[in-house]
Design brief:
Strand content: 5-15%
GO cellular component, one term: nucleus
Largest sheet: 6 strands, mixed
Subcellular location: Nucleus
Distance between the termini: 74 Å
Keywords: Hydrolase, Metal-binding, Nuclease, Nucleus
GO molecular function: hydrolase activity; metal ion binding; nuclease activity
Number of helices: 14
Shape: globular
Number of domains: 2
Protein name: DDE Tnp4 domain-containing protein
Structural class: alpha/beta
């Protein structure tokens, strides 16, 4: 073939290939996307938070859509209010009021839906989740606390100054095996320890009053006493009937090391939840430079939005590996437990090395 025939052949072949690759569009806008105004997350969230703003003769009110957009931008980035003041052309004080109002609205409107108080059936489902994913029976959730960085509150002296040498408020949270928060307590002084904050929380009061609707203790295979349902925590928490912690010490018997490993597998769900929270809502990557009441509203809002996003969009695995901007709480070494509480932990430790309770790889991990 001469050059002209080669060129014609190449052109024809290229045209056929392009026509084969061309896909005939069935829709200009896909039906799923066309329902964005009805079912899109932004609009479903916005409709429940909407508050009618009234225009005045002096100026037009800022629309609710923009108020929500500004707030989400503030929570999801490392921008401070001064940055958003220039970006959105909204006054600094007005912007502060908008963000705090929207955060309060999100908590008031959505907390009952996104973070409801579990009933007895809910607790059983949570326990089944930990049994399935972490191989830990009768677990109601993993509890832990983190320091949230803030700027020094005026006139606070050392109340908010923690052992890591920065100012903070404390977020105490309980997470289930789906990386969702089932309970939060926000605003304790940075100087306090995990156990002190936990015992000052409403969760501890409800545990002591038996008003949490926790299922009754029941039997587990290979254990001859009924085992109560319990939360799992680290060494900072005191051992009690409904709270389990690891055995203390470095040179432990294999049975105790196995228990500590199995408990850590369940406890990591709250650590991963904190990682997802801090990497999704990047306001935690810097000190929150507002007053304490405003900072508490921000943290509560982010926790509710964490559950909202988690239910709809899942999470990125990489976010579970690191926690940015949050620090562990201090330990209280003067924690004691009576023998009746210790026997439940000892019974579970024996169960984890029995044929019914052991997992094949646990001896390689201790």
């Amino acid at each position: 073939m001469d050059d002209e025939e080669v060129a014609i052949f190449a052109y024809t072949a290229l045209k056929i290939i392009r026509e084969k690759k061309r896909v005939q569009r069935k829709w200009w806008v896909h039906p799923i996307n066309s329902e964005r105004l009805l079912h899109g997350d932004f609009y479903t969230l916005y409709s429940r938070l909407r508050a009618d703003n009234v225009n005045t003769n002096m100026r037009s009110a800022i629309p609710p859509e923009e108020m929500l957009a500004v707030t989400l931008r503030y929570l999801g980035s490392t921008n401070n209010l001064h940055d958003l003041h220039y970006a959105y052309r909204i006054g600094r004080s007005t912007l502060s009021n908008i963000v705090q109002t929207v955060c309060q609205q999100i908590w008031d409107v959505m907390s009952s839906e996104c973070m409801p108080t579990p009933n007895e059936e809910d607790w059983k489902k949570i326990a089944e989740g930990f049994q399935h994913r972490a191989n830990f029976p009768h677990c109601l959730g993993a509890v832990d606390g983190k320091h949230i960085r803030i700027t020094k509150p005026p006139g606070s002296a050392s109340l908010y100054f923690n052992y890591k040498h920065f100012y903070s408020i404390v977020l105490l949270a309980v997470a289930d095996s789906n990386y969702r928060f089932t309970y939060i307590h926000v605003g304790s002084f940075g100087k306090d320890s995990d156990s002190t904050i936990f015992k000052n929380s409403s969760l501890w009061d409800k545990l002591q009053n038996n008003s949490l609707n926790i299922p009754s203790p029941n039997f587990i295979p290979s254990i001859n006493i009924p085992i109560p349902y319990a939360f799992v925590g680290d060494e900072a928490f005191g051992l009690s009937t409904n709270v389990l912690r690891p055995y203390a010490g470095k040179y432990l018997q294999d049975i105790k090391r196995t228990f500590n490993y199995r408990l850590s597998r369940a406890r990591r769900y709250v650590e991963c939840s904190f990682g997802i929270l801090s990497n999704k809502w990047r306001i935690f990557h810097r000190p929150i430079d507002v007053n304490v009441e405003f900072a508490i509203d921000i943290v509560k809002c982010c926790c509710v939005l964490h559950n909202f996003v988690r239910d709809r969009d899942g999470f990125k695995f990489d976010d579970t590996l690191t926690i940015t901007g949050m620090e562990d709480l201090d330990y209280d070494n003067n924690l004691y437990a009576n023998r009746s509480v210790n026997r439940y932990r000892d019974a579970l430790a024996n169960y984890f090395v029995s044929e019914d309770g052991q997992i094949s790889w646990q001896n390689e991990k201790i």
